Automatic annotation (TrEMBL):
Short name of any one Pfam family annotated for the protein: Cu_amine_oxidN1
Protein name in UniProt: Copper amine oxidase-like N-terminal domain-containing protein
Alphabetically ordered keywords of this record: Signal
Signal peptide: 1-27
Residues in Copper amine oxidase-like N-terminal domain copies: 103-199
Amino acid sequence: MRKKWMASLLMMFVLFFGFSSGQLASADDEYEHEYGEGKVEDHEWDDEDDDWEEEEGYEYEVPSQSSYWHMWTRDTSVAADSSLPFQEAQEVAVQLNKESEQLYVIPRNGQLLVSGEKMANLLQADYTYHKQSRILEVSKGRDELIVRSGSNAAYENLVKTPMPSEAYFFEKSVYLPVSVIANTFGYRVSWNEGSQTIVLQSI
């Protein structure tokens, strides 16, 4: 009797931890064929990752209303600030450490979206773009961010986290909220009205 009880307990333990792990895996076979096994370290991006489920405690029906444009709160209960500094997509100077670069910025869903690849270059971070699955991995030091076009989920250091807006595929690049990529790598975002510049400051 005791052996049966122990075996049942062990089985429940294995099932619980087996199903609760939040790891990623390769998105499709073409992805692995093109980039080689282990490029995304055997992680999988399921369609379930695109939206937040009620059972996880997130109410995420309107992702564009869950954060300020310049601050990634990671908290879906924060009221939105819809006052963007501009409403039309345009080239905007993004300043970091007194250096600035012109980036194309797209106002969308209450957020300012920027090219993840170009922001990675500005932040001197490494990145890998997987064109079959439109997944972008950005890393610098111990910090890593993984996003997929069309998804409002990000993996920040392999922890699934809600983004205030879906990532967006545009001109062969994955665009995501400037606050998400900046905050991940330790920068605060602000807007300088006088110079019409997005300013990144180290946190």
